[in-house]
Amino acid sequence: MKDEQCVRFLQWALPQLRMRWDGFRKVRRQVRKRLTRRLRELGLADTEAYRDYLHRHAEEWHYLDTLCRITISRFYRDKGVYAALSEQVLPTLARAAQQRRDKALRVWSAGCGSGEEPYTTAILWHLELRARYPDLRIEIVATDADPAMLARAREANYAFASVKDLPPGLRDQAFEQAHGACRLKPAYRCDITFLVRDIRNEQAEGPFDLVLCRNLVFTYFDDALQSELLGRIVATMRGSAALVLGIHEELPADTRGLYPWFGKLRIYRLHESASHPDMMRS
Ligand SMILES: C[S@@+](CC[C@H](N)C(=O)[O-])C[C@H]1O[C@@H](n2cnc3c(N)ncnc32)[C@H](O)[C@@H]1O
User: Fold this and answer.
1) Does residue 246's CB lie within 6 angstroms of at least one atom of ligand 1?
2) Ligand 1, atom nearest to 65 Cα
3) Residue 219's Cα: distance from chain center in Å?
4) CATH number of 79-280
5) DSSP 8-class letter at 215
6) Mean pLDDT confidence for 48-63
7) How many Å lie between the centroid of ligand 1 and the Cα of residue 101?
8) Could you report the per-residue pLDDT of 214-227, keeping only the tens digit for each?
9) 117 CB under 6 A from ligand 1?
């Protein structure tokens, strides 16, 4: 399939899925490959024929939706973000949890891919923070719409390319070599619950002290859906919890109740009085 054909098709189809073309501009290769395969499976000549097919088979829209999931991720993605999490954000949230006499710091990784993001958080907690907060454990809920991604997450075997950004000291302690792959040791896997959840329909069960929602809602979904989901995400947060977006993402223009904590890193914090979805809309 020619790139321009793919672009024209996506510009037509994505708004109907409540997604936005801008988010796919740089990563459309992954979708183009899948579309090419789908057209071949259906015996269709081109995207015009696929449009016709979509008109005649409403259920195909669900399948197309799954073809539009971008799955790129890696451990310690955007190192400044994880440095801030380790040095400032998690310690501040841990102290607040201790003051409340909570036993667990609760984290939600929304759109967790094959585990890179929640596992990075667990590695930081165990290797850099846990000793300072002996009475506090970490509980991470990691959700994704794609069961295949979660199956890979549970296996926790990665190519070196996925873990290469981790500081070597952390990488060497957290992984063992197994059959040419990097296998995450059990100690860094046990605090995470992986769940299949389409964030458009169902959020993880809060309350959370930290929500990582990176490179999903605020990249691929349209403006109205972003605002709607932000309200539902905030409703899962407690106290002065933190929300982390992808480094190139922006909060919707009508956002209220969150303020930048580390603005350039897209780390926001909840005003204590704002943990209700209505507070998010102007
Ligand atoms: C680009 S990856 C981001 C992974 C990780 N958060 C990061 O920033 O590295 C996006 C993930 O969101 C998942 N995803 C796509 N649509 C989703 C939806 N509607 N609900 C939940 N997860 C979704 C994809 O399967 C994929 O694993």
Assistant:
1) yes
2) 16
3) 11
4) 3.40.50.150
5) S
6) 98
7) 33
8) 999 999 999 999 99
9) yes
